[in-house]
């Protein structure tokens, strides 16, 4: 059973302690130009998680603040891992999608492939690497919650088995009418380990809601499976054509000779 | 024979254009060294929003497509034994070889951990379409160098000539399989971008569109190349040969056009192209000037003139370049929310790589038997 995190956005107060815990646990430097909290907070190579401040309208049309924690969603079938041609991204059985820097070539196909634009690049370095949230995989392997989850003072997160979290999320949004009837991450790109519930529609909070429900690797699987067969068949056809047309030319040449003689 | 070859001197004419090309190459080499030492951030305008830019879009995707003339010609001349087209075989394959070497250079420049470029040879990410591209492009470039061995050994290392000549049919066939696979795989790379690439370009059969366009752009590139070579070396490939060749393109282009319309209609996005958006207009330019007008030229009397052939070649080649840039840049703007303009250095490197290719072409044409084809005609196997 893979682990996941259920995020209840209605409970977040925007304190940002999760972003601090992330920096400390992963030893990421602070970046004055790119704060981890606020209206302009965004994921960078040093900010693996940020809390975006959003002023939105609630159901009554009143302006309200919502705080949206962003990080890698850890797709059940990650596009980055299927895109990587050197296995630098791998999905573990516990759930996290992790990155092995020594395998990375730096082609950045993972960045183009990720539907949520999560992987970031160390653009200013001479030998840059891709970076992203790894869901504190060493902690998750031991059954512990990720650093950001464990420090939250407001009870925003719940860490556990994804399928159970999903059940819980369903019962929460069924019971309480303030929630929108959508669990972000349930079906998006085939499902993600991080699940979100909210009282404000997700698209107003900057979530990419128009993504496919199909797992992204399934788009290329059939193609890659067909490749060796296409290659071999094509080779056989070409060899056949080569000998056939050569012989045909030979015969027509011989016939011409005979006619001339 | 060998002594005669040794007595021949290596020649390379100097002209003002070539001096300019050399200067451009030298500046590009400088930028390349600077980039390899300092990383990508200082030289390029790439960012987290635009991880792939001009070098992948132009140097790699366009380069590979334009270099597709080699495998198409190899298929026609050496596998189907249409010896009618033999006069263009060697120059088409040379352009292709140079094209691929430039693609390899462009790819190498674009990867961040460039000393780690060999990694996919041992760490098999075989679920990735890029894995297929990587293997096929590296194998095909090797095969092309070996194919060129047959030409090179006419002049240097002549004792190996018979080996290369014997190996040629096998190399040719392998040399057609690989490009068929990776030309489509370059499009296949974008299958994952289902929510990112604008629906006029994203398609579940985008790989097939890439394959078809790489095939029909081959003869078009040959028209451009033979016109330029004709001017430079006063060597003219007979018009009927080229005209017959682009007819092959023409039929494939009609098929491409019909398939494209079917694909857009079946996905319910046909109307998007008349929506007046930036993407729609770029798409219309690509289809009208890159596909429809060339088809008309191809099947009209205009294709019986050098001017017509050159116009056809230029339109189709530019059309394919525009298609690839549309996929890499224009079609992605909406999903990233920002736009990307390559830096001056990115342009200089791309131009420099093309300049190096032109110089290499000139040098090889002047020193090896590429264009003199009459004496070849009889000995084709």
From TrEMBL, chain A:
<keyword id="KW-0411">Iron-sulfur</keyword>
<feature type="domain" description="4Fe-4S ferredoxin-type">
    <location>
        <begin position="3"/>
        <end position="33"/>
    </location>
</feature>
<feature type="binding site">
    <location>
        <position position="80"/>
    </location>
    <ligand>
        <name>[4Fe-4S] cluster 3</name>
    </ligand>
</feature>
<keyword id="KW-1133">Transmembrane helix</keyword>
<feature type="binding site">
    <location>
        <position position="148"/>
    </location>
    <ligand>
        <name>[4Fe-4S] cluster 2</name>
    </ligand>
</feature>
<feature type="binding site">
    <location>
        <position position="133"/>
    </location>
    <ligand>
        <name>[4Fe-4S] cluster 2</name>
    </ligand>
</feature>
<feature type="binding site">
    <location>
        <position position="84"/>
    </location>
    <ligand>
        <name>[4Fe-4S] cluster 4</name>
    </ligand>
</feature>
<feature type="binding site">
    <location>
        <position position="72"/>
    </location>
    <ligand>
        <name>[4Fe-4S] cluster 3</name>
    </ligand>
</feature>
<feature type="transmembrane region" description="Helical">
    <location>
        <begin position="222"/>
        <end position="244"/>
    </location>
</feature>
<dbReference type="GO" id="GO:0030313">
    <property type="term" value="C:cell envelope"/>
</dbReference>
<dbReference type="Pfam" id="PF13247">
    <property type="entry name" value="Fer4_11"/>
</dbReference>
<dbReference type="InterPro" id="IPR017896">
    <property type="entry name" value="4Fe4S_Fe-S-bd"/>
</dbReference>
<keyword id="KW-0004">4Fe-4S</keyword>
<keyword id="KW-0812">Transmembrane</keyword>
<keyword id="KW-0408">Iron</keyword>
<feature type="binding site">
    <location>
        <position position="152"/>
    </location>
    <ligand>
        <name>[4Fe-4S] cluster 1</name>
    </ligand>
</feature>
<feature type="binding site">
    <location>
        <position position="107"/>
    </location>
    <ligand>
        <name>[4Fe-4S] cluster 4</name>
    </ligand>
</feature>
<dbReference type="InterPro" id="IPR014603">
    <property type="entry name" value="Formate_DH_Fe-S_su"/>
</dbReference>
<feature type="binding site">
    <location>
        <position position="104"/>
    </location>
    <ligand>
        <name>[4Fe-4S] cluster 4</name>
    </ligand>
</feature>
<feature type="binding site">
    <location>
        <position position="15"/>
    </location>
    <ligand>
        <name>[4Fe-4S] cluster 1</name>
    </ligand>
</feature>
<feature type="binding site">
    <location>
        <position position="136"/>
    </location>
    <ligand>
        <name>[4Fe-4S] cluster 2</name>
    </ligand>
</feature>
<feature type="binding site">
    <location>
        <position position="22"/>
    </location>
    <ligand>
        <name>[4Fe-4S] cluster 2</name>
    </ligand>
</feature>
From TrEMBL, chain B:
<feature type="transmembrane region" description="Helical">
    <location>
        <begin position="282"/>
        <end position="302"/>
    </location>
</feature>
<dbReference type="InterPro" id="IPR051817">
    <property type="entry name" value="FDH_cytochrome_b556_subunit"/>
</dbReference>
<dbReference type="GO" id="GO:0009061">
    <property type="term" value="P:anaerobic respiration"/>
</dbReference>
<feature type="transmembrane region" description="Helical">
    <location>
        <begin position="201"/>
        <end position="224"/>
    </location>
</feature>
<feature type="transmembrane region" description="Helical">
    <location>
        <begin position="344"/>
        <end position="364"/>
    </location>
</feature>
<keyword id="KW-1003">Cell membrane</keyword>
<comment type="similarity">
    <text>Belongs to the NrfD family.</text>
</comment>
<feature type="transmembrane region" description="Helical">
    <location>
        <begin position="245"/>
        <end position="262"/>
    </location>
</feature>
<feature type="transmembrane region" description="Helical">
    <location>
        <begin position="163"/>
        <end position="181"/>
    </location>
</feature>
<feature type="transmembrane region" description="Helical">
    <location>
        <begin position="55"/>
        <end position="80"/>
    </location>
</feature>
<feature type="transmembrane region" description="Helical">
    <location>
        <begin position="92"/>
        <end position="115"/>
    </location>
</feature>
<feature type="transmembrane region" description="Helical">
    <location>
        <begin position="20"/>
        <end position="43"/>
    </location>
</feature>
<keyword id="KW-1133">Transmembrane helix</keyword>
<keyword id="KW-0472">Membrane</keyword>
<dbReference type="GO" id="GO:0005886">
    <property type="term" value="C:plasma membrane"/>
</dbReference>
<dbReference type="Pfam" id="PF03916">
    <property type="entry name" value="NrfD"/>
</dbReference>
<feature type="transmembrane region" description="Helical">
    <location>
        <begin position="121"/>
        <end position="143"/>
    </location>
</feature>
<feature type="transmembrane region" description="Helical">
    <location>
        <begin position="309"/>
        <end position="332"/>
    </location>
</feature>
<dbReference type="InterPro" id="IPR005614">
    <property type="entry name" value="NrfD-like"/>
</dbReference>
<keyword id="KW-0812">Transmembrane</keyword>
<protein>
    <submittedName>
        <fullName>Putative hydrogenase cytochrome b subunit</fullName>
    </submittedName>
</protein>
